[in-house]
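Let's do one together. I've listed all components of the complex below, 498 residues spread over two lines.
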Amino acid sequence: MADDLRNGRPPAPLSALFRLLIPPPAREAVLGDLEERYRSPIQYASEGIQTMPYLIASRARRTSSIAIVGLQTFVLIACLGVTLPDLPGQSVPSWAQGGIPAAAALLALALRAVYRGDETPVKSGLLDAVAAAVAMLLSQGVLAALVSAGQIGADWMLPRGLYLLGVFALPALWIVGAAEGRHGARPAAAPAEAVVQDYLRFARSVTARNRAEMIALGLIVAGSAAILLRFNPPMAPIAWPFLALFVAILAFLALRGWAPPIPAGADLAPLRTHFSRELARQNGLRGFMWWFWFGPLFVGLVANLILLGIRMDQPLRIAIGAAALALLAGFIARANRDRGRAVRDRIAALSAAGEAASARASLRRCSGRPAREFRALHHVRL
Amino acid sequence: MAHPTSLGQFEQLVLTAILSLGDNAYGVTIHAEVEALSGQRKTALGAVYATLDRMEDKGLVRSWLSDPTPERGGRAKRHFRLEEAGRRALRDSAQTARRICDAVERCWGEKTWQTI
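Okay, and this is what the predicted structure of the assembly comes out as:
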């Protein structure tokens, strides 16, 4: 540190700390600005600390989508039993038991959004799920420590049965993170060769997302079937048809979920038409999948809030249930609208791309792995 | 033509700073210029960054990273420049400010500026 002071440079440990805390896209420029303004370690530390909340809030605003955060909230609420009715003699309400790990997971997801680097959507979704799981376990660890210290009662912990349900949140969070988000809306490039590369990128992301969805669906089907067979719960007659529907969707994704290869020998115009049609088809499929993924949650909200509210004569529970249903539908519609807008922009950019160059010429100019991969995958004549 | 985006007072200051700095508009210089324009009122550096991000999202400014410079520990500068929408918004705000000044002068006289 003494060397740094002599050199008029910020202390290395402080710089390293700020490097860690500043969101990646702003890191280089902000660290440089702070260094240029450096006068003393105290001034540097104070300015860095004051700047951090603005940077984090700004990054959170830029990376978060209300619809996605809303859907993540609903997944956590459903899987952590926040809407479950309280049992007789239960000293801590269900909403508090589930609400604490849900809030911890949401905080972790918000921080993930702020510090997310340049990741593929599938990896991003996977890391979201891992971050949420770690946060939920940490929150339970803290509660367990407080319980053992005698500060709070054991009822504050999530009931053991809900841990099993909580596991279902992870594939659902993975899918929410992998399937949507602003990183997914890359504008189509105008130059002809870029259209080819753009389609390859798009096809790769569709393949990765499709695979992720199929794995998540497979896990949910296998887990649910094991629970139904082992415990045969009262809801089994409703759950089996749902599982059959899940299997049908799984089969559909396996057969029709992929982005098909471009017709052999395609010129630029048919290539753009093919790309636009596939963008629109995948957008429609995505829209359907959102409603499908959250279908069971609608059933759960109706059963746990509205029907139970009617049975227990609790108007507040009924009203909360109705509001939750409307909110969930609103979030799904919003996510679909946001993606639809991005897809329309992308199709418009494709249409605006120059008509003159042909796909053949673009492929000749195109070099490296994408072109080779394109030719191998799509049997394009040169 | 679409109506220009209406700007808050701080956004007006930041856009004016970028306009007056020209090619040398980046975090440190914009912050210094904003403080000068606001009458040496203390301004948080973070507030300038947050406003620049927001205005970039609105399409009022554009940013790019320069080459690293030694005096900044080899780190790049994030430069800013006004986009056409930013120019229109700033012009609209300046015209409004001029109308306000004229109205104030009509009521309080030209000497009113000497007391501020």
